[in-house]
Each structure stands twice: as structure tokens, then as C-alpha cells.
Amino acid sequence: MPRAKSNPLCRPTSPGRSEALCRALAALLLLAGLSWGSARAVTLDTETKQLLVDAVEAAADMDLYNTRCRGDVSGRGTDNLNKAMVGKLRTTVLSVLDDLFPEHSYRRAQQRLEADFLVRLRDIGGCQGAKDAGLPEQLRERYQEKLDAIRALP
Predict the structure, then answer these.
(1) Do 105 and 56 share a structural domain?
(2) What is the DSSP letter of 148?
């Protein structure tokens, strides 16, 4: 029976060291790295928490407008905000929705944000009314302001 090819990273370097031991050590190193990363998590003050909530709402509004009125379902605003939050604060949009929104459930928070936006859109006269009122520019400005504030955090 041919011998299975071993993992080049787990080749025994001494006669008593097995591939299983090497894998166990690799798993321990991975777990140590994960725990070190979580220990570095940033503690957020009340002002920063409110900024994150406002930023998530602004990104959701902009993405919902683009989806509903422009047919753009990319979610680019939320994606870019998520990248900035992960890089700066080691948190995500979903974490903010789960932890900082009153629903404490990202799905329910997203549903509420969408329902609230659709009511505002209906009240302004639909997509054409929103465009006539300059809503797309207002949404972009609000979003960019919040994104810039997050990027400016220490």
C-alpha cells in the first residue's frame, strides 16, 4: 500500500515527532492567535457606539435607496463601512446590529431599518420624489460624514 503524502508543514523533524503532534501544535498556535486577537478588542465609549449606530443607519439608508430606486443591489456602502470598522475597531456591521441596536438581532434590526426607510420613501413621493428632493445627495453626504468620522478615530 502506498504511503500517504504528508503535509510539508508537519513533516517530522526528529524521529520521535509525529505528524499528529505537529497538527496539535498548529491547532494550539491558531487558538492562541485567536485569543490574542480577541484580547485586543477595542472597548467603545458611548460616543463611539452612537457613531457606529449612526454610520450603520446611514449605510443602510444609502444602500436601500440604491437598491429600491437605482437597481443597484451591491450593498457597497455597508461593505465599505464594514471594512473601515474592522480595520479601525475590530468590529463589524453585524456586530453593531446585534449588540448596539435595540433589537439585539441583526435580522430584526435590518428589517426595521428597511421598513423605516420604505415609509420615508413613500412619504417623500417614491423614488422620483426622493430624487427631486435631493435625497440621494443627502444620503451620500451623511454616509460619507460618518465613514470619515470612523476613519478619523484613534
Answers:
(1) yes
(2) H
Number of helices followed by number of strands (H, E) in the chain: 7, 0
Please report the pLDDT score of residue 95 as a whole number: 96
- In this prediction the pTM is 0.72
Side chain identity at residue 98, one-letter code: D
Q: Do 70 and 146 fall within a single domain?
A: yes
DSSP string, 79-110: HHHHHHHHHHHS--HHHHHHHTSTT--HHHHH
The mean pLDDT value for 87-93 works out to 95
Cα-flanking dihedrals φ and ψ of residue 151, to 5°? -65, -25
Predicted confidence (pLDDT) per residue in 56-66, tens digit: 999 999 999 99
21 and 77, same domain (yes or no): no
Residue 141 and residue 100 share a domain: yes
Contact 80, 136 (CB under 8 A): no
State whether 90 and 143 are in the same domain.
yes
